Each structure stands twice: as C-alpha cells, then as structure tokens.
Amino acid sequence: MLDPISAVAAASTAFNLIKKGISYGQDLESMTNQLSKWYGAISDFNHAEQEINNTGTVSKLLMKGSIEQMALDITMNKQKIQEQEKELRVLITYAYGPNIYNEMIELRRKLKKQREKEVYRKREIKRNFIEGVLIVILMLMIAAGVIGVAWLLMH
Fold it and tell me: Are 28 and 92 in contact (CB under 8 A)?
C-alpha cells in the first residue's frame, strides 16, 4: 500500500522547487521533471486515499495507527495539496499564460489514466493476493484449532 504521507512530502518538495524555479525566471521546460514528480506524487496520494477507503477487513487490521489518525492526516494533506495546486495554477498562468496551464491539465489527465492502468493495477493485484494468502492462512489456523479440539475431546 502506498503511504499518503510520503506522497505529500514528495509533492511538497517538488512544489517548492517549481515555485523557486518560476521565481528565478526558469522556463517551464526546464522544470518538467519537477512538475512530473509533483503530479506523480499527487496521483500516488489520491490512489493511496482510495486504497485506504477500499481496503479489506484483514488489511485494516494490519494497518499502522488508528483509523481516526489516518482520516485526519488524509484530510489535512488533501487541503495542502489543493492549496499547492491553486498556487501552482496562479504561478504558471501568470508566468506563461492560461493556455500552457490548460495544456498541462489535459496532459495530466491522459498520463493519470495511463498510470492507473499500469502501476496501480499491479499494486492492487499484489494487495489482493496478499489478502487472499492471509485469509487462507487464517482459515487453516482455525481448521487446525477445530481439528485439535475435536481430537482432544475424542481422547
């Protein structure tokens, strides 16, 4: 499972570098690597949020920390991301014009769909496999316990 806190930290680092680059007059082309990192981290955060919301019962039992703490972290970080996105839109629109920002958003949508198909699908398959294995192990342990108790009662 992705860690939403790490995704936000990566997004914040990339965001600060983009902001600094724009303030120093760098062209957008030289900052594409940082923009890609920021958009990738935002995508990872959003997917991690979905994973937490859609996680099975077994995985929820294995998660670190309380559900309340996770919910608070996600809510606060979602707000932080929205503020970064708003500021990024203003900076790019001011420095390069609204057409560039709109083109970036369209490209972001296309890349997001590709990423979901490739990366997130693999992660979901892995997570489902692990959950399935844990369920089978749990069922085998219960069966062994029932058989053990039955054996003890018979002797």
Answer: yes
Q: Is residue 148 part of a domain?
A: no
Beta-carbon contacts of 42 under 8 Å, excluding residues fewer than 6 positions away, are: 7, 11, 81, 85
Dist. CA 139–CA 131, nearest whole Å: 12
In a domain, 27, yes or no: yes
Residue 146 located in a structural domain: no
In one-letter notation, the amino acid at residue 82 is Q
H helices of 24-120, where? Answer: 32-54, 57-62, 67-96, 98-115
- Neighbouring CB atoms inside 10 A of 41's CB total 21
58 or 10: whose pLDDT is higher? Answer: 10
Which residue type sits at 63? M
> How many domains are there within the chain?
1
**pTM above threshold 0.90:** no
Per-residue exposure over 123-142, b if at least 16 CB sit within 10 Å of its own CB, e if not: eeeebeeebeeeeeeeeeee
Place of tokens 């990366």: 119
Q: What's the confidence (pLDDT) of residue 65?
A: 62
* pLDDT tens readout for residues 84-112: 999 988 988 888 888 988 888 887 788 77
- Full residue range of the structural domain in which residue 41 is found: 4-124
As a whole number of angstroms, the distance between CA 43 and CA 146 comes to 46
